[in-house]
Amino acid sequence: MNVLKKVSLLCAILLLTVVASAKGQSLGNRVRAQVPFDFSIGDKKLPSGKYSIGRVGQNSNDQVLSIDDENGRSKALHLSIAVVTANPRARTTLVFHRYGDQYFLYQVWLAGATTGRQFPKSRSERGIQNNLAGNPSVGKMNSNIPVDTVTITGVLQ
């Protein structure tokens, strides 16, 4: 009986630890960053400036994220999916895809987290990729689509 109590207590402590670490890796707190270029999230274009990204509501999950300007006004709401890495990021970062002078918000990562949030590619980004790939109907195809990844450091607040 004593062993059963000890195992139950150990399981309870383990569960609390897992829940606490999962909460620390969520976007319950907002990520703030200065974005030095115009960018798109989904099919919405936003000007350069200070932005914060986080949950739509305090009690919601990380699936729908709000991108707010520096005055706290929501500029975009967008669905995101969880992505996982084996190596946690050293810093909180926003990751963008760049095609020429067009930037698309791609991922949000918190410092120390192994789970980040990724935004699906928009119709605009897929269109650019298709144009860069060439037109397969006329026999021209380019398998080396020039996409750059641009990372900006943010602050968790």
Mind explaining what this structure looks like?
- This protein is α+β, with helices and mostly antiparallel strands.
- The protein has one domain (29-156).
- It has two helices and twelve strands, in the order αββββββββββαββ.
- The protein has helices at 2-24, 123-133, and strands spanning 31-35, 39-41, 44-46, 49-55, 64-69, 74-79, 81-84, 93-99, 102-109, 115-118, 148-153, 155-156.
- Strands 6-5-4-1-12 form a five-stranded antiparallel β-sheet, with no helix packed on it. Strands 7-10-9-8-11 form a five-stranded antiparallel β-sheet. A two-stranded antiparallel ribbon has the order 2-3.
- Strand 4 and strand 5 form a beta hairpin.
Strand order of the largest sheet: 6-5-4-1-12
DSSP summary, beta strand count: 12
First-to-last CA distance: 46 Å
Segments where pLDDT lies below 50 for 5+ residues? 14-24
What Rg do the Cα atoms give?
A: 20 Å
Structural class: alpha+beta
Number of domains: 1
Biggest β-sheet: count, sense, barrel? 5 strands, antiparallel
Q: What is the percentage of strand-forming residues?
A: 35-45%
Query: Count of DSSP helices?
Result: 2
Helix content: 10-25%
Based on Cα principal axes, name the global outline: globular
Report mean pLDDT, rounded to a whole number.
82
What's the helix-strand series? Answer: HEEEEEEEEEEHEE
What distinguishing features does this structure have?
157 residues; alpha+beta; 5-stranded antiparallel sheet; 12 strands; globular
Concise summary:
This protein is α+β, with helices and mostly antiparallel strands and 157 residues long. Helices cover 22% and strands 39% of the residues.
